[in-house]
Amino acid sequence: MKDVRQIKVNGHQVGIRGLDRVLEELAPAYAPEREEELAAQLMERLRHENYIPDSARQAYAQALRDQLRRAVGLEPLSASSGGLSIQVACGGCAGGDQLLQAVYDALSRLGLSGEVERVSDALEIAALGLRGTPALVVNGEVKAVGSIPSAGQIDDWLGRAAEVKPSKH
């Protein structure tokens, strides 16, 4: 299911089918004065392919608006959760899966929270300034490209990014 992207809605990861495609179509029309209108279009178009409960409609609308803002290079409107922002770039290789699991394992070991995003679209990978995969980006800073770092190295990077001292192995 390559056309499903995981996003955070009310603190929960949910899969949204067709998000990348619709963002690609709407982003070129973005202007600050049209943001609300385009966010409404995004929600309406995605409702046809995704189950969005009425009780969570407003939370989905905000999360999707944030995705639109990210797609055009703006900061999301939602307040940050205070956790880490982690991106694992992979072109569909096994190394990307291994790196993603290593990141989840490190977060668990360190007791940290964070938003982990898998980036597999070639244009998004290039927009991050990455020249290879798998790659790890923590809070906007590229940490590794083309290899899977050791568990200790990942612990160190995540611990420093969260301003906590990582445990020793």
UniProtKB/TrEMBL annotation:
Gene3D superfamilies: Glutaredoxin. Residues 85-158 form the Thioredoxin-like fold domain. It comes from the Bacteria. InterPro entries: Thioredoxin-like_fold, Thioredoxin-like_sf, THIRX-like_proc. Transmembrane segments: none annotated. Pfam families: Thioredoxin_3 (PF13192). This is Thioredoxin-like fold domain-containing protein. It comes from Desulfoferula mesophila.
